[in-house]
Amino acid sequence: MQTSTLAIVSAMHEELRALLPQLQDARRVSRAGREFHSGQMYGHPVVLVLSGVGKVSAATTVALLASEFKPYALLFTGVAGGLGAGVCVGDVVLARELLQHDMDASPLFPRYEVPFTGRSRFPADTALSDTVAAATTQCLDHPPSELSAAHLAEFGITQPRLHEGMVISGDRFIATSDDSAALQYALPDALAVEMEGAAVAQVCADIGLPFALLRVISDRADDSAHIDFPRFMNEVAGAYTHAIVAATLARL
Ligand code: ADE
């Protein structure tokens, strides 16, 4: 039986760390090496968990989460490398569909298609994504107070924007301009690349769980990605995620 609980799955410790202090009546349950934190956040029943890194970890986390906590929907937050032209560090990408860029069972099946599903692109839930889009726009117009304009400017972030479209996932951190260019060439409508989202989308499609996924752009998936990524995680990502989650919950 479904509950009124929203699952919030974070890819990184820094994001979970920013959310946990807001959790009231917190209870912690461990399963399969994962810690699930349930309670109330801004008046909503929620369960928070780290996805783990990569497609298998994320898929296992979502399957466990769904069977143990029966959430009515899932919101995934994290960071990603920007691929699309104009998708800059500090921008937010909201996935409307997701694809595994490293899925290739050709010539048996078309490249990117998940065998026996007939699909390469898995859609996010439209209504929940629309809510997250509105919450994100509000947060980008009024950045969280802990992120001063001067601090954001250090990362070259002046006018962060929301982009909506395809996010691609694979078990590889993209950290060279050549790899990034190859992905852009093969999948020209991909806005951002990360390591979990399309696996989450496939599990959610299998079990009929509505989900939305948002990613703050931490790097451009190029030769400087390994420098930009950790700094952005430590200094910016948590505050952004917290603000967008709070604004989303206020709209549900
Ligand atoms: N997450 C954040 N940046 C990324 C990148 N460059 N490649 C894959 N996942 C990422």
Features:
single chain, 252 residues, alpha/beta, Rossmann fold, 5-stranded mixed β-barrel, 10 strands, 37% helix, binds adenine
SSE blueprint and pairings:
Layout lengths: L5 E5 L2 H7 L4 E8 L2 E8 L2 E7 L4 H15 L3 E10 L9 E9 L21 E2 L2 H16 L7 H6 L7 E8 L7 H10 L3 E5 L2 H11 L3 E9 L5 H27 L1
Parallel strand pairs: 1-4, 1-5, 5-10, 6-8, 8-9
Antiparallel strand pairs: 2-3, 3-4, 5-9, 6-7, 6-10
Helix pairs in contact: 1-7, 2-6, 3-7
The site of adenine has 14 residues, from strand 5, strand 9, strand 10 and helix 7.
Helix content: 25-40%
CATH superfamily: Nucleoside phosphorylase domain
Strand order of the largest sheet: 5-9-8-6-10
Number of H/I helices: 7
CATH class: Alpha Beta
Small molecules in complex: adenine
Radius of gyration, in angstroms, nearest whole number? 17 Å
Low-confidence stretches are none
The tally of structural domains comes to: 1
SSE pattern: EHEEEHEEEHHEHEHEH
Terminal CA distance reads 20 Å
Might you state the CATH topology name? Rossmann fold
CATH architecture: 3-Layer(aba) Sandwich
Q: If you average the pLDDT, what whole number results?
A: 93
The share of residues in extended strands comes to 25-35%
Major beta-sheet overview? 5 strands, mixed, barrel
Q: Shape from CA axes?
A: globular
| Broad structural category | alpha/beta
Could you please describe the fold and organization of this structure?
With 252 residues, the chain is an alpha/beta fold. The chain is globular and about 50 Å long. It has a 5-stranded mixed barrel with strand order 5-9-8-6-10. Strand 8, helix 5 and strand 9 form a beta-alpha-beta unit. The chain has 7 helices and 10 strands. The chain has a single domain (6-251), classed as Rossmann fold (3-Layer(aba) Sandwich), CATH 3.40.50. The structure holds adenine (ADE). Adenine binds next to strand 5, strand 9, strand 10 and helix 7.
